Amino acid sequence: MTSTDPRTVVIRYVEAVRDGDADVIHDSFAADATWHYPGDLPVSGVWRGRDAIVNDFLGGMGPAFVPGTLEIELVSTIAEGDRVVAEWTARAKTVHGGTYDNRCIGIYTVRDGRITSVVEYADTRHVAATLFPHLDTRRPAGAE
Fold it and tell me: What is the pTM of this model?
């Protein structure tokens, strides 16, 4: 039987992303889960539902990476009750000729052995520069 311990659920999910295990990735989320990715990138916003998270958000990032180059490393986790904070690094070659190298944090809520919500924090400026280099990410005059 698969563990429902929140920390174990999140570790299993991150390892599934690292290993490319689509079934475990899909099964890690509740059907009505949400994923909030801040910023103003094409992938920013609140993704609602397991299928939108897995197919559109996570799946939408995949084409930006050269196949076989994505490396995920779980750095640490902190768990309290049904919430888990996970820190990981993600590295890959991009189809635009650059190198993606980001350190990320996700705040996961887990209930009944499934991830019900995630809020992810990452260097969105780096994401824009390496994964979406066609976007104009310059700050307007006078912006701080």
Answer: 0.89
Q: How far is CA 20 from CA 25, 88, 121, in A?
A: 8, 16, 22
99-111 vs 114-121, strand pairing mode: antiparallel
**51 touches 57 (CB < 8 A):** no
- Residues 6 or more apart whose CB falls under 8 angstroms from that of 51 comprise none
- Distance separating alpha carbons of residues 98 and 67, to the nearest angstrom: 14
User: What tokens appear for 31 in the block?
Assistant: 């059907």
CB atoms within 10 A of CB 119: 16
**Tens of pLDDT, residues 122-138:** 999 999 999 998 876 55
DSSP assigned state of 142 = T
